[in-house]
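Structure (tokenized):
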């Protein structure tokens, strides 16, 4: 995981970790939603919490921090792809953070002998789609 986080951070994506007694009990990060250039302002937000620490507000704190950092970095949309339509805790967490339900992908995951539906949720970040995403004072941006 540390290699994954280093790679994401090196590419400009935020990562946060929750620790207790020098043990990781949860993490969240922003990662590319899609690798094609047109989607570079949209990110996905994996959030993982050790099951022994569910219901303690750790996921809420991590997700809120990732949202805040992502907005500061100029990202415009955040997508949650929740890998089980029955995961009411993850759906509830995202609703608390202002995500909206946008759809369900039927039977696209397979885990533990069962086909899973994936719930798609979305949150607008910062200026969302109201302005051009590029900063014109950035020397590396070409129009």
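Design, position by position:
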């Amino acid at each position: 995981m540390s290699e994954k986080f280093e790679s994401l951070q090196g590419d400009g994506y935020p990562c946060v970790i929750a620790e207790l007694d020098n043990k990781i009990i949860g993490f969240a990060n922003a990662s590319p939603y899609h690798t094609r250039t047109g989607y570079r302002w949209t990110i996905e937000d994996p959030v993982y919490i050790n099951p022994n620490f569910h219901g303690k507000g750790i996921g809420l704190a991590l997700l809120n921090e990732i949202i805040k950092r992502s907005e500061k970095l100029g990202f415009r949309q955040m997508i949650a792809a929740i890998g089980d339509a029955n995961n009411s805790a993850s759906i509830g967490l995202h609703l608390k953070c202002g995500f909206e339900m946008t759809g369900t992908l039927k039977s696209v995951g397979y885990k533990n002998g069962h086909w899973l539906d994936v719930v798609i949720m979305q949150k607008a970040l910062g200026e969302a789609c109201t302005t051009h995403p590029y900063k014109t004072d950035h020397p590396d941006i070409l129009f």
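Reviewer-requested clarification: The two ends are 36 Å apart (CA to CA). The chain has a mean pLDDT of 89.
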